[in-house]
Each structure stands twice: as structure tokens, then as C-alpha cells.
Specification:
The protein is of the alpha/beta class. The chain is built from 7 helices and 6 strands, in the order ββαβαβααβααβα. α2 crosses α7.
């Protein structure tokens, strides 16, 4: 058995691709070609059967990382972490590399949510990789439709408000960036409602009976 240092995937920190930027030591056990093929085939099958959800707002520092955190918590509470891959992004790149807005992290923490996503812009690969892309407001949706490389890709785009409970007074998730505490609380309220209904809709399409 040989101990080596390897660049190895951490799926909770990087939703796309097989390898990511988490380093660590692990034990390497020699495998036959058939065993290696079987292992990678199982990983590929797991990823293929996952529902991949991307939340999008303007800068990816308030609403969309909050939606990602809310949805992750719901998936975890229901024991469906292996069935979902959840990420978020922005339609602009000026906050790329930043953590979510401190105010949003504080308000989310009060609800038991940890927001540690690193901001990034939407890219062309997202439209092929994700099964559903959820925009927070009309501006986000318009920009996403402009970016969509095909009609098929555009069909993946949905408004968060589509999943609000009947009777909601809102037709979008308002940007809290220039608002006070009430604005951030409102966003979290809307996202908890919308993500709950989105989760129900998605799990109705994917029964929890997949075993790997």
C-alpha cells in the first residue's frame, strides 16, 4: 500500500467535472484495469442519474447562493444528497471568487444554513450540464435566454416564482443588496417556499429507489 498526495474531487465544493481543487493524502491500492473501469463507470452512472440544479441571480452573492443553501438543506434533510447536484452562478462576473454577501450569510446562519459558495458567472457549459436552471427575476431570465445556445437549452430555464405557493404576492425574488434586514429575511422566506415546491416537483419525477 502506497501513500500518495493527489488532487481529488470534492463534489460538495465543485459541481462540475471529475477533479477539483481539494488536496489530501489517501491510500492507493493497486487495482486491475477491469476494477478501475468498474469504479469509474459507477461514478459516471451516479452523476448521470443525479438531478443537476443551477440557481442564478445577478452577482451570485445573495439570492442564488441562498437558494443553493436552502435546497441543499432540504435535500440533506430528506436523505437525497446522492440524488442531487446543486450549484449557483451569476449573470455577471464582477463578484467572481467572493463568498456570499456577509449580510446574507448572517441571516442564513440564523436559520441553520451555512453559505460558503464561491461566486462564479454562468458559462456556456452550464446549459448542457444542468437539468434545470432557475433564475430569480425577469432580468436574470432574460439574460439566461440570451445566453442559451439552443432552443433545447432555453427550455431548461425556469423562474423561481414558478414554484411559489399559490397566493404569493411576489412574482420574483427581489434583490436584497440595497435593502435592510427585512429584505434578506424576505428573500429567505421566498426561497424556502419556492425550493420546497421545487424539491417536491423534482422528486416526483425521480423516486428515491436508485441504488449504487
Amino acid at each position: 500500500v502506497l501513500n500518495i498526495n493527489c488532487k481529488f474531487k470534492d463534489p460538495t465544493r465543485n459541481s462540475k467535472g471529475v477533479f477539483a481543487a481539494t488536496y489530501g493524502n489517501f491510500q492507493y491500492i493497486p487495482l486491475t484495469g477491469d476494477e478501475i473501469f468498474l469504479i469509474f463507470s459507477k461514478f459516471a452512472l451516479m452523476e448521470q442519474k443525479q438531478l443537476k440544479v443551477l440557481f442564478v441571480c445577478l452577482g451570485n452573492i445573495c439570492r442564488s447562493p441562498a437558494a443553493e443553501g436552502v435546497m441543499r438543506a432540504m435535500v440533506r434533510e430528506n436523505g437525497r444528497e446522492g440524488d442531487f447536484l446543486i450549484d449557483s452562478a451569476g449573470t455577471i462576473s464582477c463578484h467572481a471568487g467572493e463568498l456570499p454577501d456577509r449580510r446574507m450569510r448572517v441571516h442564513a446562519r440564523e436559520r441553520g444554513l451555512t453559505l460558503d459558495h464561491i461566486s462564479r458567472p454562468v458559462d456556456a457549459e452550464d446549459f448542457g450540464y444542468f437539468d434545470i436552471i432557475v433564475g430569480m427575476d425577469a432580468s436574470n431570465l432574460s439574460r439566461l435566454r440570451q445566453m442559451a445556445p439552443s432552443v433545447e437549452a432555453a427550455r431548461k430555464i425556469h423562474a423561481m416564482a414558478e414554484y411559489f405557493s399559490p397566493g404569493s404576492r411576489y412574482d420574483h425574488v427581489p434583490d436584497p443588496y440595497y435593502e435592510g434586514a427585512e429584505g434578506f429575511e424576505l428573500v429567505l422566506d421566498l426561497l424556502e417556499d419556492g425550493c420546497r415546491n421545487l424539491y417536491k416537483a423534482l422528486t416526483a419525477q425521480q423516486p428515491a429507489d436508485t441504488q449504487f
